[in-house]
Each structure stands twice: as structure tokens, then as C-alpha cells.
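[scheduler] slot 2 assigned
[scheduler] job type: sequence-to-structure, two independent chains
[scheduler] chain ordering preserved from manifest
[runner] begin chain α
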Amino acid sequence: MPIEFQVSLEDKPGSLAWLGSVIGDANVNFDAIEARSGRGVTVVHFVASDTEAAAAALEESGIPYSKREVVVVNILDQPGTLGDVALVMSEAGINIDCVYVTVRGDVVLGVDDVEGATQVASGMAVMIEE
């Protein structure tokens, strides 16, 4: 399963540049990334091309992080498809707490039940990325 990192940065100019440099200097790519700011903090979620190298780079630079498994799915690029996936997940009792897109156009779903979400997505003929 893909791993999502979550880091909290100070909401100021240069913070995202610093994170990008730390990850880039480790020769790691962002496969997917999203960020939002509020109350002086920027929360960044990302999936890295090399999980172990990204974790080592974050640790070496002193950036605290958490990580978790996420579901990455390839869905049709048609109006309403994401809504359909979200509806079926909700009907299965699965909460989606985070959604963003990879650089390849796949959808990253942060969920409270990775195994269940994987089963639901597979049942919808949605391609799961490992």
C-alpha cells in the first residue's frame, strides 16, 4: 500500500521550499502532494517515490512527521465519478478524510479503513495502485 506522510510547517514564505529541498536533496520525488494553511500552520500530505528515503530525509532535517497507508485509485475522468466512489465508500461506512491527485492523475484517498476501502474500490472495477 502507498504511504502518505503528514508534516506541519510554519505558515511563512520558504517553508514549502524547505520541505521540497529536503525531499529533493534525498533524490525523492513527490508522487502526490497537497497542503493547506490556517492559524499559522501549513499541513502538508504527500506520497513519496521512495518512502524510506523520504522518512530518513525528514528525520535528518528534524521535520516531525507521521505516516499512514492510503488508497490510490485510478478512476475514470468523467463528471460524477469521484462522487460515485465517495458514495459507495460512505455506504460501506468508510470515511474519506483526505483526497488529492497524484502527478499521474490517480486519486489518493485517506480513509479510516484502508482494507475496506481497497475491497470497495476493487468491487467497483476501480484500479488500485500498489
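[runner] end chain α
[runner] begin chain β
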Amino acid sequence: MIGPLLVYLLCVVTCATCTFLMTRAWRRTGTRLLFWCALCFFFLTINSILVVIDVIPTPETNLLAYRQIASLAAVAVLIHGFMWEIK
């Protein structure tokens, strides 16, 4: 039980770190693509937190719909950012 919890928590930390670093770089440079990537990783962080809440403490909870919404938001934001940069 400790193995999966450790992996899921490392995923949360990794996503949150990427969000922080990309947000900091975006504030320094003003590159819009960094903003969209940071926002994508923000939603991936939410997804990872929901995985920890959903899977680890009580297997009876079902947050699958919320996890999928967070994943969809992450991908949609990134695709929107790519399309914005093509213009």
C-alpha cells in the first residue's frame, strides 16, 4: 500500500513543481506558450491530487468523472494554447 501512495504523491509533487517553474518562467519572459503549459500542468496537478484522494484512502470513492474533467481541461488548455500560438 505504501508503494502506490509514494508514486502518486511523487506525481503530485512533480506536476506542482512543473506548474511553479513554468509560471515563474512565464512571469519573467512573458512567453504565452509557457502560460498555457503552466495552466495545463495546473490541471494535471489537480488530476494527480484527485487520484490520491480517489484511489488511496478509500477505494469506495469514485472520482473518475472529476479526474477525467481535469485531464480534459489540461489537454483542452494546451491545444488552445497551441492554436493561439499558430495565429
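[runner] end chain β
[qc] chain β: Residues 55 and 61 are 8 Å apart (CA to CA).
[scheduler] slot 2 released
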